[in-house]
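I have a small job for you when you get a moment. Would you make up a two-line entry for one protein for me to read? No commentary is needed, just the two lines. Write everything out right here, beneath this request.
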Amino acid sequence: MNKYARILIGLLLAVGVTGCRLPLTLAEGSPGVPLPTADPHSTATQTPFIPSPPTATLPPSAYYTPTSSPTPVDPWEGFAAPVEDSATEIPRPHAELEMQDGVMNIVLLGSDERSYSSGYRTDALVIVSLNPQNNTITMLSLPRDLYVYIPGWRMDRVNTAEPRGGFEMLRQTILYNFGIQVDHWARVNFRGFINGIDALGGIDVEVTGYLYDECGGRWYEYRAGTTRHMDGWTAHCYVRMRKNSGDYDRMRRQQEVIQAIFTRVVSLDGLSRVPELYGEFSQIIETDITLDAVLPYVPVAAAVVSGSGTMRSFAVESTMVTAWRVPSSGAAVVLPDRTAIQALVQTAFGP
């Protein structure tokens, strides 16, 4: 394995373990801008970010109730029919997206699996597309609470598909609702995140917003404009703390950690630690991707590192969904604006 194969694996690790909802770098015209948290110790300065209201927990009365309408006969076409009733109408499948020859699509999963728990859900879901024809790596982040049709089951959160029916059910779910044919999968859990950071010798995170929050009984303070070295546990706390902050701030921190991981992987000297890192990665990441499958795409990673290629990122944003509660369970989900999401998918992955 050469260093660019290692860089590609490191990229998968960076995206998968942080459960990112925002990009390493935002593509021109792509939605989503992370907001900084104001530092109470600093003087007022003009913010370079687009203002946006903080995320709040809505009362039941604030959630949208969809208009009741019957599901058309067999709207699922060639996909598996539901085996349980659904709380909303089942939409028709998204037309499969046409992609260039040689493109490989990977779904990266961040699991909330813990050693003391037998079950898990997919807390983060990112579709990564490697295009060797134009040397691009494209990422699309999906909200875990997106309410979609899961072929062979019912309407439910997208993050329940893989735990219920494995990769095949998730692959069918993505194809049905987004028209994206996924080729491979990779999954990492909380422990894998911590071990991955430690295997890199820690990371140096450039902090862009103020944070004062608690994790594991300890309080942490971070100030904008500083660089903090973090081991696996500290980085784990940094991307997950939200007692004193909201989801927008947490997404900003996740972006910072992705940048730090990628920078660290690229900065490692030659092949000196490849056996050690590859051994660690193979224990951290569960995947059906073989080294033989990855190697043809190594030039794409090399092009991105050298600047001749492009990394583009997109995310399904709050403007593309509507908050809703499932009547039978009271579960808070988000209903997709299918027209807006279809346009986003076409922009991100279309030829």
Remarks:
- The longest strand covers residues 122-131.
